[in-house]
Amino acid sequence: MTEEARQRRRTWVVGGILMALAASVGFAARFELAPYHAAKDVLWALAVLVLVVGLGRAGSITRRRPFASTIVLLQVAMAAPPLPTFLSGLVPDDPGNLHAQEDAYLAVMIPYQALLFAVTVVAVILIGAVAALPRPWSWAPACVLALSVLSSTATLAIGFGGPSAVLQRVLYEVPGAGMLLLGVIAIVLGIRAGTQPEFAADPVARRVSP
Fold this sequence. Notes:
Blueprint: H1 3-28, H2 38-53, H3 66-79, H4 82-89, H5 98-130, H6 140-158, H7 165-172, H8 174-192, H9 203-208
Helix pairs in contact: 1-2, 1-8, 2-3, 3-5, 5-6, 6-7, 6-8
């Protein structure tokens, strides 16, 4: 096995394990275990950091290209709890005028959510386009994002409670399941790295491989 293959293997396996653990914590840290939910965000950030920086240059899912790497890491920083918590603190506390307080909250959080979504879309597109992972797996993050958006939209559309409660619960779990799937994909690709021709470091090399 070449050194590049070793770098891909250890990066993708370690990053995948961290991502799978993040998803597992998200599923488990509820009710009395809710105080441990913050571990999910820490594990997720570590997973993305490992996968973007790489345990060796060849392991980076962005090939350490400055623009792609910056956008993906920016997405993680924006989605991490400290930023929305800080933005929420900017909303003035006005118990005497709840409508004004709600309007102020929406005025801060809606632009934040819109910007976060835009950065997330760009990030997954860049990961797919860079194709450090063998295709079609490089587009897995984009597919998971699309499914998460569809599930969230469907959850809002069917409403709360009633006969739709079970379906709503299933849809609610789609983002977490998507994160777990990404972790499993990364682990499997890492194990296979160096043993399959589609793992050639250069996209051109992959196209001409028998």
